Amino acid sequence: MTKTRSTAPPRRERRKEDRPAEIVAAALQVFADKGFGAAKISDVAQLAGVSKATVFVYFPTKEDLFRAVARTVVSANFERLRTTEAAPAMPLASFVPLLLRQAATLGERRIGAIARMLIGESRTFPDLAKVWHDEVVAVMLGILTSTIARAQALGEARAGDPRLIAFSIFGPMMAGVLFREVFGDAAAELPDLEALARQHAEIVLAGLSTRADE
């Protein structure tokens, strides 16, 4: 396997406060490329352009580093949604397309590779699945579930378990991300995630709307 060269700026040009983010970005790439078990802190250090000792200063264990990666995924992909969801004026008809458009970008950010890694390694490293659930999945589902529940209370959405509805909304997007990740090198016809997001949003909103009952 060809070693990935570090693209980090020379050390003298970098600020100390930037190091944790640079290390986490490198870790995301290493975990996605090699998996958790095979990943080494030295790989992360080399890619981040720091010493192995420097990585341990900020992240004492590989598990701590993985947790930081998970939290970065949330801040990079779902913080905007969390802020938007907190605004009472955001209707479900606007929120769902926004969420699915955001989900369509996950495949471009190595999140699909991390998800595939978890599927393959969660039995060997069960704590990883818990970290990813607590830091990423629970956050995403919580945002969507509360938005659906609010829409139901306002009479904008059909009755039903809002958490199960949230699963049904987000599930096809994760399936698309994983499909591209698994079959990307198999000459398969890969789904256009942006097109999937648009079409799925239309179908979901039509199905949830209470207007058809009027």
Determine Rg (CA atoms, Å). Answer: 19 Å
Please trace the helix and strand order, writing H or E for each element: HHHHHHHHHH
Number of domains: 2
Tell me what the CATH architecture of the largest domain is. Answer: Orthogonal Bundle
The averaged pLDDT comes out at: 84
Which percent bin holds the helix content? Answer: 55-70%
Rough outline: elongated
Q: Would you tell me which CATH topology of the largest domain applies? A: Tetracycline Repressor, domain 2
> Beta fraction of the residues?
under 5%
Low-confidence stretches: none
Q: Count of helical segments?
A: 10
Distance between the termini: 61 Å
Strand segment count: 0
Largest sheet, in brief, is: none
In terms of structural class, how would the helical and strand content be classed?
A: mainly alpha
Mind telling me the CATH class of the largest domain? Mainly Alpha
CATH homology-level superfamily of the largest domain: Tetracycline Repressor, domain 2
How does this structure look, described?
This protein is an all-alpha fold. The protein folds into two domains: 11-60, Orthogonal Bundle (Arc Repressor Mutant, subunit A), CATH 1.10.10.60; 66-213, Tetracycline Repressor, domain 2, CATH 1.10.357.10. The chain has helices spanning 19-34, 41-48, 52-58, 62-77, 79-85, 92-104, 111-121, 126-153, 162-183, 193-208. The longest helix is centred in the middle third of the chain and has 28 residues, at 126-153. The chain is elongated.
